[in-house]
Amino acid sequence: MKIGIPKERRNGETRVGATPETVKKLHALGLEIVLESSAGEGSHFYDNSYREAGAEIGDRAAAFGTDVIFKVDKPTRDEIRLMKKGAALVCNLDMCHDDGTWSALAEQGVEAFALEMIPRISRAQTMDTLSSQANIAGYRATLEAARLYGRFLPMMMTSAGSAKPARVYVLGAGVAGLQAIATARRLGAQVFGYDVRPEVREQVQSLGAKFVEFDIGESGTGTGGYAKQLSPEARNKQQQMLTEELKKADIIISTALVPCMPAPVLITEESVTGMHDGAVIVDMAAATGGNCPLTEADQVVIKHGVVICGYTNFPALMPSDASSFFARNLFNFVQLIVDPNGAAPKFRDFLADEIRAMMLITHQGKVRFEAKKSA
Predict the structure, then answer these.
(1) SS3 155
(2) 176/159 Cα distance (integer angstroms)
(3) C-alpha atoms less than 13 angstroms from C-alpha of 220 in its C-beta half-sphere
(4) What does the DSSP 8-state code read for residue 221?
(5) What are φ and ψ of residue 190, in 5° steps?
């Protein structure tokens, strides 16, 4: 059985689906690896290292013509046409937007697994790419905020005078937000965390941040550990209360997302106009509209004297570790769909396990899921 590792072609995508480390582990399971030439260069993993680990270096068609394909981003139509019937594709499939990719995969006879659909259960933690990449994103976003901010983050005392610690507000206390809080604290900032889910208070405080709490009349706790969309009345209260609080910020790192919905507006234009010149907003929700209406996706802009960063792929800015974590997640997952025992590796029953059944989007020529509707 062969696993193909194609080169990612999405603009700005530097990650890769396997590293020399995971190639060795896959090879030890009796699997053959076919890597598209230069697929790992964006992550500083080069063909010679893969070859030494046991991979075969081939072209694009060879990587896509394997039994299992590891990708970061969803495939294009041209890439789907290179896949063979019965192949298993493992990648992110943009589960909130059905643009016809799923139907094309089904028509090609590809068994497609969506990494976004990994259930939040303990047995699946080692396969959870969303968490591993969000962790990296929260860290890198904080470093970007520190780079864009023209002052110290920690309190500094020098012969030329002293500098107060920066006031950093982190909006959203999921995986990315908690890592942003921890990183900002390590850099010496005074950190404040906000989330509509009151149960995350202890997590925020355990990292040394102060928890900002408002009475908006309802909880934002949704299913699966995610936040849910608030009612219009609660959203209005939230915006009003946050507007005044955020004017005190030197740096805001916003991570607030609602699955398959536009990002909630937490940083109003009034908040931005009230911040001091040179303050920084890093809007990690830029890909789904942004937590600030002034954010521009994949751009750094200055509005009302405030620097607003709207990068949409922070893990790609740390490609080596992001690829290493991603590849380890995929190595753990492949053992769930491939049985390495016996004379030769073979596919397991894809529907006989809750994890792979939940992730299986196309099966035997049919699409098994519908896109979640966004507002």
Answers:
(1) coil
(2) 37
(3) 29
(4) B
(5) -90, 115
| Distance separating alpha carbons of residues 326 and 302, to the nearest angstrom | 33
* Tokens standing for residue 79: 């890439």
Are 256 and 225 in contact, with CB atoms under 8 Å apart?
no
> Which amino acid is present at 58?
G
pTM over 0.90: yes
What contacts 320, CB < 8 A, 6 or more positions away?
43, 44, 45
**Amino acid residing at 1:** M
Contacts (Cβ under 8 Å, ≥6 apart) of 41: none
pLDDT tens digits, one per residue of 290-345: 999 999 999 999 999 999 999 999 999 999 999 999 999 999 999 999 999 888 99
Show which residues are catalytic: 120, 125, 128, 131, 226
Cβ neighbors of 32 (< 8 A, separation 6 or more) are 1, 2, 3, 56
Buried b (16+ CB within 10 A) or exposed e, 172-205: bbbbbbbbbbbbbbebebbbbbbbbbeebeebbe
**Nearest Cα to 180, choosing from 207, 147, 148?**
207
Ramachandran sector of residue 104 (left: φ over 0; alpha: ψ -120 to 50; beta: rest) = alpha
Token duo for residue 35? 């890597």
Alpha carbons 44 and 258: distance in angstroms, whole number: 34
Whole-angstrom distance, CA of residue 141 vs CA of residue 137 = 6
